[in-house]
From TrEMBL:
SMART domains (alphabetical): HTH_GNTR
Source superkingdom: Bacteria
Protein name: Transcriptional regulator, GntR family
One Gene Ontology term of the molecular function aspect: DNA binding
Keywords: DNA-binding, Pyridoxal phosphate, Transcription, Transcription regulation
Species for this entry: Micromonospora sagamiensis
Family label: In the C-terminal section; belongs to the class-I pyridoxal-phosphate-dependent aminotransferase family.
Gene3D superfamilies for this protein: Aspartate Aminotransferase, domain 1 (3.90.1150.10), Type I PLP-dependent aspartate aminotransferase-like (Major domain) (3.40.640.10), Winged helix-like DNA-binding domain superfamily/Winged helix DNA-binding domain (1.10.10.10)
Alphabetical list of SUPFAM superfamilies matching this protein: PLP-dependent transferases, Winged helix' DNA-binding domain
InterPro entries xrefs: Aminotransferase_I/II_large, HTH_trans_reg/aminotransferase, PyrdxlP-dep_Trfase, PyrdxlP-dep_Trfase_major, PyrdxlP-dep_Trfase_small, Tscrpt_reg_HTH_GntR, WH-like_DNA-bd_sf, WH_DNA-bd_sf
Length: 484
């Protein structure tokens, strides 16, 4: 998407625009506008592309800039162009309809945007061969009913092995396969947290974890992360000791959204404090496979657990593909049995075929994940460079892993910026989505999961609307549809 037509390209498409039928009766600007409408109507000029700047088109067509300005104005008035000062002009159709990249006509609400609300990569090329290989394996399972509440043994073995490789001996009985990490969290909360139980979370944190906690009517306390330093060890340990929450939900490995990595000594101390306080720790390792720049990852938090206090959750979504819907829980074998019993009342079991696909992907983990890291580092650097160039007043901590960065803005404008950005085709997840009580308006999460060109384009558009923010007449807030 995010395509742009250059002056020369549009001039070629327009061809003999000044000699169109009926031309003699209309001024140049009207003829030019009519020609652009004609290109849009017959699909030769796509919808949602950025037209050249007025000066560029004037030069390409060898006409005066005033003529182009008037033509663009007419196109805006007829609903064929959407312009934002400083950002550019995008083609559209009157009545708020356009064609999405799927080729389908969609209402304006379904605009084919640069979606920075979702922090997840497109599927790796290995997914299709892994799926083919999985279908070859499937007959081995077809002789049974196919219900495996803790997951098929091959996948549990592969996941257990990956923990052992990280220095945490794990047996397949300690693993339960789920339909994604979110499902794992929900099941763990059902088991470990009575309704209205007390929970400690980081702030900012992953919004859908807050949603899962809200579903349990949890009483939530927060530990604030600093932009540069992450966790404040003393404060975190003191809150566990003093408030003795029933449960703490932490993302120590490239935290979403800040990208911070919890140091090894704090991991050990948090586990000790949790045990002393009677707090269960739910450790979300969604991003653990994605260190960047060769950053060493400390041992799993559960390494320091001697009393089955730590329940670890993780999944395939971030290193591999969210559409696979494969996650897991690592806990003690009795806890896994209890979780499996609880899940029978929820969804029975995970799809066998998808689990087999996961087995094949994990067998190829070294290659796939190495490519993901290279891709993410490149995209992160492109995003950082674009921010430094266009929004130098924003402060960012360079993430050493994961897929997101957390930016401190030049004012408490995150929600307003998200509203304005949507108008120019960028969907953002504003800071308050990552906290409680509408705080974090000075912050914005920016994922670097899209191609570098899209990220740079998005920053240019965001920078342009940031300039407009303080002007009157802001559009109404529309919630981003999915944040993940
Ligand atoms: C910290 C964290 N936990 C869980 C999830 C959900 O992952 P899944 O797609 O495996 O359910 C995400 C996805 O963004 C996440 O960032």
């Amino acid at each position: 998407m995010t395509s742009q037509v250059r002056g020369g390209q549009l001039a070629r498409l327009l061809g003999q625009w000044h000699a169109l039928p009926g031309r003699r009766r209309s001024p140049d600007y009207a003829a030019l506008a009519a020609a652009v409408r004609g290109l849009l109507a017959d699909g030769r000029l796509p919808l949602g592309v950025r037209l050249p700047a007025e000066r560029e088109l004037a030069e390409a067509l060898r006409i005066s800039r005033t003529t182009v300005t008037a033509a663009y104005r007419e196109l805006r008035e007829s609903g064929h162009l959407n312009s934002r000062r400083g950002a550019g002009s995008w083609t559209m159709l009157p009545g708020g309809h356009r064609v999405a990249s799927s080729g389908l006509w969609t209402p304006q609400d379904d605009l084919d945007m640069i979606d920075l609300g979702i922090a997840a990569l497109a599927a790796p090329p290995e997914l299709v061969p892994a799926t083919r290989a999985a279908t070859e394996d499937l007959p081995r399972y077809l002789g049974s009913a196919g219900y495996h509440p803790t997951g098929i043994i091959e996948l549990r073995e592969a996941i257990a092995r990956s923990y052992a490789e990280r220095g945490l001996p794990t047996s397949p009985e300690q693993i339960m396969v789920t339909n994604g990490t979110q499902h794992a969290l929900d099941l763990v909360l059902r088991l470990a947290l009575a309704p209205a139980g007390s929970v400690l979370v980081e702030s900012p944190t992953y919004p859908n974890a807050l949603a899962a906690l809200a579903a349990r009517r949890a009483r939530i306390a927060t530990h604030g992360l600093a932009l540069d330093a992450g966790w404040d060890a003393d404060l975190l340990l003191a809150s566990i000791r003093q408030s003795r929450p029933r449960l703490a939900y932490l993302i120590p490995d490239f935290q979403n959204p800040t990208g911070h990595l919890m140091p090894v000594d704090l991991r050990e101390r948090v586990v000790g404090a949790a045990h002393a306080a009677g707090t269960d720790l739910v450790v979300d390792e969604s991003f653990v496979d994605l260190p960047l720049d060769g950053t060493p990852v400390p041992p799993p938090t559960a390494t320091f657990d001697r009393h089955s206090r730590v329940i670890t959750i993780g999944g395939m979504s971030k290193p591999y593909w969210g559409g696979l819907r494969i996650g897991w829980v690592r806990a003690s074998a009795p806890q896994v049995q209890r979780l499996a019993a609880a899940r029978i009342g929820v969804d029975m079991s995970s799809p066998v075929l998808d689990q087999l696909v996961a087995v094949h992907l994990l067998a190829d983990a070294a290659t796939i994940v190495a490519a993901r890291r290279t891709q993410l580092a490149h995209q992160r650097d492109a995003l950082l460079a674009a921010l430094a160039e266009r929004l130098p007043q924003w402060r960012v901590a360079v993430p050493r892993g994961g897929v997101t960065l957390w930016a401190e803005l030049d004012g408490p404008v995150s929600s307003a910026l998200a509203r304005a950005a949507e108008e120019v085709g960028v969907r953002l997840a504003p800071g308050p989505r990552f906290g409680l009580d509408g705080t974090l308006e000075r912050f914005l999460r920016l994922p670097f999961t899209l191609p570098a060109a899209d990220l740079v384009d998005a920053v240019h558009r965001i920078a342009a609307v940031r300039y407009d923010l303080d002007r009157a007449g802001r559009p109404q807030w529309r919630e981003p549809s999915v944040i993940a």
